[in-house]
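hi! just following up on the protien thing from before. the input was this:
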Amino acid sequence: MNFTAQDIAEFLNGEVDGDGSVAVNSVSRIEEGKPGTLSFLANPKYEHFLYTTQSSIVLVNKTFKAEHEIATTLIRVEDAYQSLASLLEMYEQSKPQKIGIEEPSYISKSAKLGEKIYIGAFAYIGSNVKLGDNVKIYPHVYVGDNVVIGDNTTLNSGVKIYENCNIGADCIFHSGVVIGGDGFGFAPSSANDYKKVPQVGNVVIEDHVEIGANTCVDRATMGSTIIRKGVKLDNLIQVAHNVEIDENTVIASQTGIAGSAKIGKNCMIGGQVGIVGHLSVADEVKIAAQSGIGRTIKKEGTVLQGSPAFDYAPYQKSYVLFKNLPKMREQLFDLEKRLKNLEEE
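and the predicted 3d structure came back as:
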C-alpha cells in the first residue's frame, strides 16, 4: 500500500517540506535508505546521512535546521521517533488479522471465549479460563486453569501462563515467556538439605504491559507478584516471587530482581542489573547497566551506577581514579624509593 507525503503529514499532524505527492510503501534506516521508503532522523549524530540518503521521505523534528542541500522530502513533526512509532503501529494494524480456532488445539468446555479471538494449533486452554475480545493465542501456547486474559492481548508462540494468573488488556508476551512458575522458595532442614516451600500465590499483570522473549515472572509464595500498567520488560529477565514493579517502568535484558523487591514508577533499569530482595526503589530512578542494588533507594530521580551502586557523578569520578590505579601504584613505589634514598643520604 502506498502513502504520499501529504497523507502521512496529515496523519501525524506534520508539515511537508518538499514534494507532497511523493509516495512510499515501506520503511528503512536512514543510512540504508532506498527510493520508495520512509526513514526518520531523531539522533543528531545521524544527520550526515540525511544529505545522501535515497529514502523518498524522512521524518524530522520541527526544530531541525539543514546545513546542506537535501534531495529528499521532509515531514516535520514534533517528535520524529514518536511519529515513526505511530506510523509503524498503523502499518501493523493494516495487516490481515488472524481470527478463528485452528486444529488440533485443546479448549476446555468451561473456558469462556471473547469475540474475534484467534487460537493457534496445539494451544492448550484450561478449565475456567476467560479470554477477552480480540485475544490472539499463537501455536504451542499453554494457558492454565482459571487464567483471565483481557481484551486485545497477544501471546506469541511458546508462551506459558500458569494457573490462577490474571493478565490485563493490550499486553504482548513474546515467545518463551513464562508467567507464574514457582518462586525460588526452599527452607533449610536439619538434614542439611532443602524443603520446598509451596508457592500458592499468583501473578497479576495489568494493561499495556509488554514482555520480551524468555523472560520469567514467578508466582508469589502468598498473595501476588504484580506488574503494573505500562511496564516494559526486555528479553531474558528474571522477576522473582512477590516482586512489585510499578507503572511505566522499563527494564533491559538480563536483569534479575530478587523476591519481594518493590520497584517504583517510571524507573529505567539497564541490562544485567541485579536487585537484592526485600528492598524498595523510589519512583523515576535510573540504574546503569551491570549495577548491583543492595540497599533501598529512597530519593526519587536518583541516577546510580556500579556494584554496589552509588550516585552516578561520584561513580564517574571514582572510575577515573580506578583506571589510573596501576599508574598511581608505580608513582607511589617511585616516591617510596626516593624517600628511602633521601633518608640514607
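Residues 100-314 form a domain with the UDP N-Acetylglucosamine Acyltransferase; domain 1 fold (CATH 2.160.10.10).
The helical segments are 5-12, 47-50, 80-94, 312-323, 325-344.
cheers
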